[in-house]
Amino acid sequence: MAVDLSLDPSTLRLFADKARTLSADLEAGYEDGRDHEIDLDAEGMHESHHHDALAEEETDDQTEQELRELIDDLNIDEAADLVAIVWIGRGDYGADDWDEARSEARSRAQGKTSKYLLGMPLLADHIDAGLDALDL
After folding, report:
1. 25 or 45, which is more confident?
2. Tens of pLDDT along 48-84?
3. pTM
4. Is residue 39 situated within a structural domain?
5. 3-state DSSP helix/strand/coil percent for the chain, to nearest 5?
């Protein structure tokens, strides 16, 4: 089945890689049962208050911000293609339903696509599965 995409499949794979990196970063923070706990030393805080925790938080969020900006920069057709691929990868549509999935994604577009997609814990897997289902 030939699919006419407004995005290059390599760009979509880049989105998947960034989403996978983001997901791995989130999982690493939970593996020891602590959600990015910051150990504050009460004595040291008064002597040298350098905002180290803020710098750490900023670097952890860089991949998410990058991916969010890449998705937000897509035009309506590109965003609809990305969402349709995710839906196909998630099993909401089959590969033969490409036109229907793309049309539905376009008609349901409200708000930021990045907010919708980054709320999916398995986003990278859905993108990869969608691309595979479409033989891209």
Report:
1. 25
2. 444 444 444 444 557 788 889 999 999 999 999 999 9
3. 0.72
4. no
5. 70, 0, 30
Are the CB atoms for 135 and 94 separated by under 8 Å? Answer: no
Q: So what's the pLDDT on residue 59?
A: 46
Give the other-Cβ count within 10 Å of 71's Cβ: 22
CA distances from 132 to 21, 50, 84, 101, 124 (A): 20, 47, 13, 16, 12
Domain count for the chain: 1
Q: Which of 12, 2, 1 is nearest to 123 (CA)?
A: 12
24 pLDDT above the threshold of 70: no
The torsion of the CA quartet 124, 67, 111, 10, rounded to 10 degrees, works out to -60
81's CB contacts (< 8 A; 6+ apart) are 5, 6, 7, 102, 105
Question: What is the domain range of residue 120?
Answer: 9-30+54-133
